[in-house]
Structure formats: C-alpha cells, structure tokens
Amino acid sequence: MRLTAPILAAFLSLVPLLPSDASISSTSPVGQAGLIRARLADANRFRDHIMVVAHRAGWKENGQVVRAENSKAAIDHAAAIGVEMVELDVRRSKDGVLVVLHDETLNRTTTCRGEVSDAMLATLKACRLIVEGTGIVTDETVPTLSEMLIHARGRILVNIDNKLEPEDLIEIVETARGLDMADGILIKTAIWNDERLDRARAVIDTIGPDVAFMPILADDAVRDAAFVDRVAQTFSPQAAEMIHWRRTEAEPLTEAGGPLFSPRARAVAVRGNFHMWVNTYPITDRPEGMVAGGRGDGLALAQGQPEAVYGFWIERGATIIQTDEPEALIGWLDRQGYRRHYGGGDSEGSADGTAPAPACAATSRDTSNDGGRAIMASVSRR
C-alpha cells in the first residue's frame, strides 16, 4: 500500500513544482493533491513538515463557525490556504446513496429535520446547508460523496470519516475509483483488538493496495507499542490516528502524550514509515482537548498557548494535525519553521539541509487489547 522509493522518485521527477496555494484545475490528474500524496506516502522523508487536516472540511475560525461544515465552500477555503487534507463525514440516504453530513440528523446543519437515513436523496437535495449558530442559509444542499470528491479532485486530499460500518468502505472506495480519485482519499477505521484487526484486514484485502489506509488507535485499549507495530505490519499504513483521552476537566493536561506517543510508539512509526496523526479539535459539550490529552485548539488559541499544544505534539512525533483552526495553525507552523513549501526542496532531510532526527530504539512485547469501544461512541460526535 506504499510507494516504493524508486517509484516515488520517478513520480516526483514528473510532477510539476507548485506553490501550496496554487490554483489547480479540479480535473488535473496530479496537481497539488499529487504532491501532498507523495508526502503522505513517505513520512520519514518529510518529518520536518507538519501536514494540516481541516476537521469537517474547515468550518471555524477563532472558535466561531464561519462556514457550513462539510461544504464545497469549506473545501475551497482549505485548498486556498494550503491545507493538505479535508475531513468529510460519510452517511447513506434512505435510497442508498452515499452523502456527506456529520450528524445522524439533519437538524443542526441544514434547513430540514429528521434522520438522514430516513430521507431519500431527492429530499436531501432540498435541504440547504446552514452556518451553524448564525442564521445564515447557504446556496449549497446536502452533497453526495461523489460531488464532494469531484470538487476536491486535484487540489486537496480527502480524509473519509466513515459514519457507517467498516465494510461500507468498500463502496466508498469504489465511488472514488469511478471518479479516478482512488489516490485522492485516505480511509480509516478504529482498531482496538484482534477481532477489529481481522475485520479491518478483510475489508482492506477486498479493497486492494491502491488506496491509503489509516488505523484509528485510542489509548483506552491500545496502550502498548507492540500492538501498534502489529497493526503497522498488517496494513503498511501511511498514517495512524492516535487518540489520547482526557474524559473530564478534572484530569490534568497530559505531560508525556500517553502511550501512543511514547518513544517506543514513535520508533514504530519511523520503522513503519508512517505519520503520527493527532486531533486537536474540540468535541461539543466535552472537556477541552478530549482526544488530545487536554492539549487542543482551545488551549492553543483561545488561551494563547500554541507551543503547549502544537509544539507539544510535534515534539512527541506528530506530523499530521487535524484541527478546527487550520489557518491559524498553518500560520503558527510557518513562523516556527515546521512547513516545507510545495514549490520545491522536496529532497531528503530538512528544509535547512540537515537530516531528519534519528529514530529511537524500540522493543516489543505481547499484549492483549480488549475493549476500546469508547472510541466508536465518540466518532458520531467528532
């Protein structure tokens, strides 16, 4: 599922060098998305560049909702400011069409009411997206997955947050393939024990190796690098989404980053050549930074401590950050020297010519990983 070094080198030699905010046709077969995909596929080569993912496609600025979530307008803005990837939430209409909407119901984000799964596509196409909490009704209606993939094609990658069952990833991928977008998406599913690993493996075996896959690992169940290593060896993922829980406000901020960002886990990521992904966005009505050990966007921006959040996670190996504040995050990363321009310099080592930090040694031991279902309960709120 990974580009080999010779193939990657040949690929890069053919790709035109473009700035991160280049205006590229959505029909471009490579475009900016191809450059981003090359960095996604070779984490070790680009560990001095932090990739940014816009949660729900990028709906907030300074803690306020300014765009309809999961909208084409949000994709346009994310692509324009240099975001590498937008997250899109996928559900299914009553007549079986894959659509993009975060909640189970239409109530919060559209002009309609009721369950998404109870509405035919024709009905959903009469539901206009709203900018939550503002009274603004947009001209966009509930989009299909196909429409959103076409809109993003060539400009930005799409992280699929599948609100259905793992097996539905097969149809999601077929939809992308039909649009020549198999290399433009990143699919994922939660894995917390052997049963979930086997279930995910069956799905990915059916899909094939041409689509980037990312396991979601949460430290309520996965607490040892040995299991992370097993997952990595099974799937050869491009990234692993790591969740470090902070369930109540009474819990202190994480001091070490949790077991999934331990030195051993970081060594597994280097050995497996995959990105460590952290989520800093808030979850509604939950403690700040709930999925990042308390170190989330609110602490970084509202409380003015970006180093205590973004710097903290970068120091512990994170090379992809999913946020509700992509523009502010990119600005901070640029000022700190954590971004490499897409217009050139994609050679080995850091932008200043130094080599990437060396990997630390790792050891493994067997572990049992049961439970972990709390992550699935959180997925519908993320």
Structure description:
- With 382 residues, the protein is α/β, with parallel strands linked by helices.
- It contains 13 helices and 13 strands.
- It has helices at residues 5-14, 31-40, 72-81, 121-124, 145-152, 169-178, 194-207, 225-235, 263-272, 297-302, 306-315, 326-336, 374-379, and strands at 51-54, 60-61, 64-65, 85-92, 98-100, 128-131, 136-141, 157-162, 185-190, 212-218, 239-243, 275-279, 318-323.
- Helix 6 packs parallel to helix 7 and helix 8 (225-235) packs parallel to helix 9 (263-272).
Concise synopsis of the structure shown:
The protein has 382 residues and is α/β, with parallel strands linked by helices. 31% of the residues lie in helices and 17% in strands.
Helices and strands, with pairings:
Layout (H helix, E strand, L loop, with lengths): L4 H10 L16 H10 L10 E4 L5 E2 L2 E2 L6 H10 L3 E8 L5 E3 L20 H4 L3 E4 L4 E6 L3 H8 L4 E6 L6 H10 L6 E6 L3 H14 L4 E7 L6 H11 L3 E5 L19 H10 L2 E5 L17 H6 L3 H10 L2 E6 L2 H11 L37 H6 L3
Parallel strand pairs: 1-4, 1-13, 4-8, 8-9, 9-10, 10-11, 11-12, 12-13
Antiparallel strand pairs: 2-3, 4-5, 6-7
Helix pairs in contact: 6-7, 8-9
